Amino acid sequence: MTMMGGRFPQGKDEVGQTVAGYPTYEAAQKAVSALIAADVPAREIAIVGKGLRSIERVTGRLGYAAAARSGAVNGLLLGMLFSAILVIGSPTVPIQAFVGVLFVGIAIGMLLSLVTYSLVRRRRDFASVMQVAADHYEVTVSAASLNRARGILNAPGAASESTPTAASDPPPAAPARAAPEAPPTERRAAGSGSPRLPARVTARVRRRPPHPAPPGPRLPEPRRSGPRGSGPGPRAMTSAGALNVPVDLPTGRVETVAWHERAEAGWATMAIAHGAGAGSSHPFLVGFAAGMRGEGVSTLRFDFPYLTAGRRMPGPPAHAVATWRAVAALAADLDRSPLWAAGKSYGGRMASMAAAEGAISPAGLVYLGYPLHPPGRPDKPRAAHLPRVAQPQLFVEGTRDPFIDPHAQLVDALAACADARIAWVEGAGHSFEVAGRRRDAATIGAELAPIVAAWMRERS
Q1: Given CA atoms 26, 27, 33, 39 in this order, what sign does their dihedral have?
Q2: Dihedral of the alpha carbons of 434, 439, 441, 444, in degrees to the nearest 10
Q3: What are the contacts of 232-236 at 24+ separation with CB within 8 A?
Q4: 3-state DSSP call for residue 24?
């Protein structure tokens, strides 16, 4: 339902920034529905018509007969109103009076229509309807949600969630290693009314110095197109390929796609799921997977069936759980190393549900921006199942992520879990972008890998 005439913020930027353009209003409506379903705040979204023009469509020629017919219809409605008032005021009124008032209304309507037509017929002798049309329509959002909205709609220009790239894109340059946060030790103090937040350890990622880096695993160097002697570094993948994954859904068997990329001397395998708005070939996940292979972890990125089928909206949670079950079985066939489950936002939440239901039993779970609740709606938490996850859990979270605001709500939710830790990334949003730091999405993803790998080694 659309309501016209509301009050909007004043100023030149009152409708936000453009996410994408569409040739029809219906297409723009579908885009808005996709954004709202992905938890972009509805109040920050607008549809802006561009190139507005007024169109008057002629519906027929007017004459005295046509004017009389139109007036009779309007008068009939007027007569029925007067007749109803008469009956309500005098229930015993005879039917002749009711019919008489009805005909009086018809006569008044015809007379008014004929008089009006006689006054304007020399200037206008046709009937028409007016409408306002636009050449195209733009969907806009506030600046705070711009990058995420572009990622959801796969629109160009996003810094962190933009048009997906192929899985064969070269991995980004390696950042320095960063240690994860110590386990949360929040407990309610005796006699106090509020929980004490754990000490926050911020994961700060620095540029690699030009001199020799400290010892330890390194991220893979970008692949070159030259001769074999200039090939990938010591941790580059040795094999990769797209695989078809059969998934048994409640509605029948479907197929989705996965990319298995093996690390040299790999000591673990990580299945990586995408968020609701972008597939597993999104630069963020490509960079994160490359960083994990640099840490000696083979990766298995995969798409949920709804995305493979060309739909933008995720299916029921049961479909995602079934997909995780199928991917875990595939990983067991591909590699004998321990399987770890990871996911960006929606993908991580679906992994936690699969683990809570016993559909998968990974060595641990990693959530890259867990969507604890829709932005601005802490009254709708998504954490009731987390205590049922028996495996270790790592929550990599940005301190400016609206999906976990207030932070105390996340801390309280994890207090009931058997083994849960939060690794905070200072100043980062839901896509781990940091204001004032210009980095591409692949680099952002790669910089999280050392944090995750260090935690995995502790739990291995």
Answers
A1: negative
A2: -60
A3: 234/264, 235/263, 235/264, 235/293, 235/294, 235/295, 235/296, 236/264, 236/293
A4: coil
Pairing of strands 53-61, 126-133: antiparallel
pLDDT score for 259: 94
- Residue 290: CB atoms within 10 Å: 27
Q: How far is it, in rounded angstroms, from Cα 223 to Cα 217?
A: 18
- Joined together, the tokens standing for residue 227 give 């001769």
Strand 365-368 and strand 339-344: the pairing is parallel
Q: Please tell me what DSSP assigns to residue 16.
A: -
Does pTM top 0.70 for this prediction? no
Which H or E element spans position 311?
Answer: none
Q: What is the pLDDT of residues 304-327, one digit of tens each?
A: 999 888 888 898 999 999 999 999
d(CA 185, CA 78) in angstroms, rounded, equals: 75
Relative to beta strand 126-133, strand 136-141 is unpaired
**Token pair recorded at residue 8:** 């909007």
Q: Residue 115 half-sphere exposure, CB side, CA atoms within 13 Å?
A: 6
Helix (H, G, I), strand (E, B) or coil at 76: helix
DSSP-based three-state secondary structure for 367: strand
363: nearest Cα among 256, 267, 450: 267
The DSSP 8-state label assigned to residue 356 in this structure reads H
**Which residues, listed in sequence order, are joined to residue 53 by a DSSP beta bridge?**
133
- Complete DSSP assignment for 149-213: HHHHTT-TT-SSS-S---TTSPPPPPPPP-PPPPPP---PPTT-SSPPPPPP-B----PPPSSPP
CB 443 within 8 A of CB 287: yes
Residue 305 and residue 308: Cα distance in Å, rounded? 5
Give per-residue pLDDT as tens, 217-242: 333 333 333 333 333 333 333 344 68
